[in-house]
Amino acid sequence: MMIGLGLEGYDPDSQHDAAVAFHVRVVEDEQRISRHQHRKGQLILALHGAITCEVDNALWMVPPQYAVWIPGQLAHSNKATPSARLCFLFIEPGAVTLPTRCCALKISPLVRELILTLAERSLDPLQPATLRLVDVLFDELPRQPQEQLQLPVSPHPKIRLMSEMMAEAPAAWQTLHQWAQHFAMSERNLARLVVSETGLSFRRWRHQLQLIVALQGLISGQSVQQVAQALGYDSTTAFITMFKKGLGQTPARYIASLATTSR
Fold first, then answer.
1. Nearest 10 degrees: CA dihedral of 200, 32, 259, 212?
2. Domains and their CATH numbers in the chain
């Protein structure tokens, strides 16, 4: 079943099926779902474009072939890129053992196809074949590896502004000095603020944001050189070093590994 990002009034807690999935297509006027919560846990799988999920003190930016897991009763908001295609999977509490905290999961081709097939059968959730499909899905879901695609954030207006502007134009905002001038405060005080609000130094926090933005660009088809330039790196080598330190592989090998597991 294909529905809009706002789920067209669907209440995931109105039913007690172990799992129910929907295809979601994003249109220009509904790119964001405001803060909400529900009893069921929710897995948001990105098929095309990207999805951003925000919970208290953390922001997940999930590109294609990844999903964000949101445990039940956890307040969150979602924002998708224009024309994104997603799949929402709602899971009844206790139906399967999944992380108790919000996280990003690298989704295998098998699990991806299981979720997509379940979405196609959403009108017949109690059919024996559909129930067997859910059993297999629940066997495989706990095996999906977690990826460090979260950016620590906070309600502090300065941290909020920094994260939004650096994600939108990472090459334009490279240094702590730039931000200190923008806020008319000392670099030392701003550095302390970033650590107290995010738990990371400004350099590590900026690198984590760059890593997430880089992965989005690479998976969307940009070259390593294009991504490095967009992030403001003077050399491709410096960007590759940052990427490898964060994800354990060079960008080319990382993207190649995704290609070998996708259809």
1. -20
2. 2-147 (2.60.120.280), 153-259 (1.10.10.60)
